[in-house]
Amino acid sequence: MKFLVLFSTVLTALTSQTVTAAKHFQYTGVSESCAEFGQGNLPGTYNRDYTYPTDASLDFFIKGCSNLIRLPFAWERLQRTLEGELDAEEFSRIDGVVKYVTGRGQNLLLDPHNYNRYRGQLVTPDQLANFWTKLANRYKDNQKVMFGLMNEPHDQPTEDVFKTMQAAINAIRATTAKNLITVPGNAWTGAHSWTKNYYGTSNAEVMATIVDPANNFMFEMHQYLDSDFSGTHDTCQSASIGVESLVAATEWARKLGKKILLGEIGGGDNALCYAALENTMKYMMENSDVWAGYAWWAAGPWWGNYMFSVEPNADSSPKPQWTKFLQRYTQCSA
């Protein structure tokens, strides 16, 4: 019961503020997750092991005033061998989504959803640089396309994550591409762990020395609100857990004069999680000199009844987290 009271209080306090919420966010959107499915069967069969978001799904979020679509995909499908050419058929599928989204004036964040690995093996700086050279050359003339270097590196020295990301940045800029780049850290790029060192040297220490010749990048962090920050539970630790998780990373980025995109966040359809999510968004708005926006995890046609899904139902009706929370934090809220 106390959670219901807390949620009601927080929601009432924030209602007037969320009317202008999106004025504080450059990017508000969702991850359209489905093209990275079927990791156990690579490259797999299209529309059996994996798929791409439908126009109807994209339209729901674009018309709902989301100006950012994050597109996870499997590197192994787009580049069938390391340092090989991009697969024409797979590229055409990605390109179809890119053109659909950016043709409607919105932003598309490319997301190789690979954890700094290729077929389960850690990649080298040269291998990621080769991949991004090829992809950047395809999209350097479309500034609505954003380059998310890699999803959630983990279980490797942070210094190696730095080397791989820096090599990718250098390779992208060598193509003359000026597109916005988002740079992850180690340890699943968690905001809550950014300044900690239980996984090795902290992201705060190592990633601070990232250099972008074009000076057009943000750090990408992810943050879930459950007991182990994994996003695998529909319950949240507390109403304040999101704020507590972001404070140290916010202070770190501000000292560097850098911005952060919250590339993944999600929470369950319950009062405590809504309170935690509201508080997190309020904190990000109050610190919008650092926080550029967010992408919710997740949308996508194959999620079914997944606890965080905001993919519209079969009858086109919206999911609870969209109506109760997210739609108040879109560009239409401005």
TrEMBL record:
Secretion signal span: 1-22
Entry's Pfam families? Answer: Cellulase
Q: Which reaction does it catalyse?
A: Endohydrolysis of (1->4)-beta-D-glucosidic linkages in cellulose, lichenin and cereal beta-D-glucans
One MF term from GO for this chain? cellulase activity
Its GO biological process annotations read: glucan catabolic process
The residues covered by the Glycoside hydrolase family domain are 32-299
SUPFAM superfamilies given in the database record: (Trans)glycosidases (SSF51445)
Could you list this entry's UniProt keywords, alphabetically sorted. Glycosidase, Hydrolase, Signal
Q: What domain of life is recorded for the organism? A: Eukaryota
Please give the InterPro entries that the UniProt record associates with this protein: GH (IPR017853), Glyco_hydro_5 (IPR001547), Glyco_hydro_5_CS (IPR018087)
Q: Which family does it belong to?
A: Belongs to the glycosyl hydrolase 5 (cellulase A) family.
Q: What is this protein called?
A: cellulase
What is the scientific name of the source organism? Powellomyces hirtus
Which lineage ranks, top first, belong to the organism behind this chain? Eukaryota, Fungi, Fungi incertae sedis, Chytridiomycota, Chytridiomycota incertae sedis
